[in-house]
Design brief:
Radius of gyration: 22 Å
Strand content: over 45%
Strand order of the largest sheet: 1-2-8-5-4-9
């Protein structure tokens, strides 16, 4: 019961958060996101791996879709195909791993040396894009101490993937961002800026050190958002707006 009406004591003296009903309502977007993730193509990202006899065991997070034992999966960016021999979810054997679950999966038919943390497992008919180049909308943070110029290097983090990238084109600064879904037209403030400083919104193109699996944010939120770090500091966050052909 909330604090008494006579004197306003009890809970109201120290609790300033939302009511129980409001907090419950806040879970609805999460439930909607789960429904959307279940209906999208299979995307599983490798968080850890270890040889398992002639097979390889991978610890994955199912970002969308689902997988069952006996299924064939395409491992990208290497392009190898493997068979799911067994699945464990929360430490128990399972026939299926579904969207947003963490699972331990044994793969057959792939060389463990070819898989790495950050690899994505998917289906061949709905494969995740693989490219070295992409365009993005980024927000620079106050921790950015040195302005971003064309060629500036970063460590990019996408889920469990960490990879060196360079800013290859500063397309524009923005007065208004894209919608939360990554759609629509951004409101351009200045075309081709010379540099970017802290607390700015901008469109930028990036070149990765090797091919990676990323998607447009409107197609996959988990694989479409990233952070940029320099010298151990997070200096920008962003969403992927387009996958660009390799030069």
């Amino acid at each position: 019961r909330e604090g008494g009406k006579e004197g306003g004591g009890g809970l109201r003296e120290w609790y300033t958060g939302p009511s129980l009903l409001t907090a419950m309502d806040d879970f609805l977007p999460a439930a909607k996101f789960l429904r959307e993730a279940r209906g999208k193509p299979l995307r599983m990202i490798v968080n850890d791996l270890a040889p398992a006899g002639k097979n390889v065991g991978v610890s994955v997070r199912v970002l969308s879709g689902g997988v069952k034992t006996g299924s064939k999966v395409l491992i990208l960016p290497i392009g190898d195909v493997a068979v799911v021999r067994s699945i464990e979810v929360e430490g128990s054997p399972a026939e299926v791993a579904g969207a947003l679950e963490h699972a331990e999966i044994t793969l057959q038919g792939v060389d463990p040396a070819r898989i790495s943390i950050g690899s994505v497992l998917c289906k061949g008919k709905a494969a995740v894009p693989v490219s070295c180049r992409f365009a993005a909308q980024i927000t620079t943070l106050s921790s950015l101490s040195v302005p971003i110029l064309r060629g500036t290097p970063f460590q990019m983090h996408v889920q469990s993937l960490e990879i060196p990238v360079n800013a290859t084109r500063l397309t524009a600064t923005l007065a208004k961002p894209l919608s939360e879904e990554g759609r629509g037209a951004a409101e351009v403030k200045k075309e081709r800026p010379r540099c970017l400083t802290g607390n700015m919104l901008a469109l930028v193109e990036f070149q990765c050190a090797r091919p990676v699996c990323v998607e447009r944010f409107e197609d996959s939120r988990p694989l479409g958002r990233f952070i940029l770090r320099q010298k151990g500091e997070t200096v920008a966050v962003g969403i992927v707006t387009a996958i660009l052909p390799d030069a």
